[in-house]
Amino acid sequence: MAAIAANLPEELGPIAQSVEAFCRAEVIARHEKHHELLNNPRNTYRPDGRMVDEAVAHIRAVRMASAKAGFFNVSTPESLGGAGLGMIAYYTLIELVYRLCGPHNWLCDFVISHWAFGPSAVLSQITPEARARILPGLMAGETMMCFGMSEPGAGSDAAMLKTRAEPNGEGWKISGRKIWTTHIPIADYCVVFAQTDPARAARKAGGISAFLVPTSAPGLHVESVIRMHGHIGGNEGITAFEDVQVEPWQLVGDLHEGFRIGLLGVSMGRIYNSARAVGLARWALEMAIGYAGQREAFGRPISEYQGVSFPLAAAATEIHAAHLMGVNVAQLLDRGERAVKELSMTKSYSVQAATRAIDQAIQTHGAMGFTNELGLHEAYARVRQANVADGTNEILARTIAQRLFKGDLDL
Q1: 168 backbone dihedrals φ, ψ, rounded to 5°
Q2: Of 47, 124, 171, 255, which residue is the least packed, with the fewest Cβ within 10 Å?
Q3: Tens of pLDDT along 105-136?
Q4: What are the backbone dihedrals phi and psi of residue 400, each rounded to the nearest 5 degrees, phi first?
Q5: What pLDDT, in 10s, does the model give residues 192-218?
Q6: What is the enclosing helix (H) or strand (E) of 391?
C-alpha cells in the first residue's frame, strides 16, 4: 500500500521503476566492481584533495549513461531539449535514488541532472551561441558545470558579493574569489556571479550578472580543495578569478539581473535537498528497523523495547510528514505557484527531521552505527550539511516569518 495519496503523473511510475533498475546496474554494480577506487578515499583522492582521474571518469560514465537512457534530463525544460517533467519528477526521482543507493554508492549523485551541475531551468536564458557551444555536451552528460555564487564574505546574504565584472569593450573581465563551489575541481564550466553595476548592487536593486565561464579560462585558478567531515579529499573549492575575459555570448540572462537566476537555482536546490534528505533518512530508518528486529538483548529483539521502537516510530512519523510536504510543494511549483513560504518550510523541516532520523538510526545500531562499513555517519554528515546549503534553517525561518506577517497565512 502506498503512503502517498497525491495523484502523481502517470508516466512517473514507469520512469521511477526504470531509474531504480538503472541505479542497480550502473551505480550500485559499479561501486561493487570498483570498490577500492570509489569507496577507499586513499584511492579516490589525490594528496592535494582532488579526485583522481579514474574516479572522474566513472562520474562522466554515469552521467552519459543516464542521459542516453533518458533519465538525466527528465526535469530539464523542453525548451532546452529535456523531458520537462518538472519539479514533481525532480523531487520523486531524487528521493528514490538516495533511498535506494544511500551515501555509499555516491555515484548516484549524477543520475538526475542537478540544477547546479547540469542542465536545468537555470540555463533557460543562455544565449544562442552558448546553446550551440555548451549545451549539447551538458545535455549528453559529457561535460559538467558548477555554480559560483558564495564568497568568503558573502554567504546567506549573497547580495554582498564583491567579485566584479568590469566592461572592457570586448565584454567583461572578472576578478574576485569564490568559495564553497561544489565540483569546481572537476567541472568544465562555472556559472559565475559578479557585480556589473556596483551602485545598484549596493542598493540591492540589481547590478549583479551571471556568466558561463569555462574552468580552463586564463586567469581562473582553483586555489584549494576544502576538506570537510575529516575526509582526506573533497568536492568543494576556493577559486580565484584574475581578469578572466568573458564575451557577450557568455552572459546568462539580462545584464545586471543575474540575481534572479541565482534565486531560481537556490529554490531548485531547496527541492533537491528536501528530497535527498528524505531519501537518505528512509534508507537509514530501513536499516535501523531491520537491525532492531534481529539484534537481541536480554533474550529479546531490541525492537520489543519501547526505548528503541518508540524513537524510531517518532522519526518515521517526521519523515512521512517531510515526504508529504515535499510532494506538495513540488506540485505547487509545477502549477506555477511561487510557494516561497511552503518551499522554505519544506526544506527546513525536511533536513532537520532527516538529521534527527539518521541520528536515531545510529543510536539504534549502538557502536556499529559509527563504523565506515554501514555508512550511517556519512548519511548524517550529508544531511547535516544540507541544514546549511541553499539557505540555512535560520534564513528560512526568517523568510517564513516575513511571509506570514505580510499576510500569507495559508497553511
Answers
A1: -135, 20
A2: 47
A3: 999 999 999 999 999 999 999 999 999 999 99
A4: -60, -45
A5: 999 999 999 888 899 999 999 999 999
A6: none
